[in-house]
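Write out the 3D structure for:
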Amino acid sequence: MNLLISNNLKTIEKIKKIESCDVALSLESAVLKGKQKKYELVITDGFDASEFFKNTVTVRDYLKKAAENKEIKIIRQEVISVWSVKGGVGKTTLVKRLIDTADKNARMLVVDFNFQDGGSDLSFMLELPVVPHLGIYLKERTKKSFFESLIKYTENVSILQAPPKRNFVKDITPDDVEEIIKLGRSAFDIIIFDLPNTLNEIVDTVLANSTKRVVVSSGLVSEARRIKELKDSFIVVVNSHNKSWKVYYKDFECIPIEQAEKIFK
């Protein structure tokens, strides 16, 4: 039995024509039903239920797969932040690797918060056009301007790139970050943030809203000591061919950068 979370009567009728299912008109009601019964699939209509259910799929994807008569593949919605305690450790390289190794059925949004005059490393690495960028969204701060500010990099990957000048984002706030995540969740299965190697209220907000926090390290002892002082739990991705780092990083959940795809598991 599936569970549909929707307060739209037309949507409820459309789904029930395909198969019988339980219906919850609110997220609160869905959580209560989930405690009483185990559902094979939770179909969401504008609700973010990923915190409470692992087997979620949007109404749009459910109807698309039903029309194609295909098995529905569940992809748990993730917000993954990629950070480092120092520069030059391969953070942007890891983001590129995640783009290349992610499930091609998953819709991915990459948000670049590495604000630098002249353009960010990710923009150069992916050979992105100068516009659109995050600064364009911040001019209007609307849903329409958000999606117009995205660059379609591949069929399933979109980029919200950093602007070419810092002053385009000088007024960005933690509320803006949360709104970007909310809008991203409405259309994408995976959101990846490429963060600067610093801590401020913007980075803190991204980390607080992430389902997975990744810190990239070159394997140095000094980095291990700094990572150990962090209050949040991190997956450490080590970008080093020298295996001696294992001695100093034994207390962390570590992944060699060559196995970065494990972050999605």
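DSSP finds eleven helices and twelve strands in the chain.
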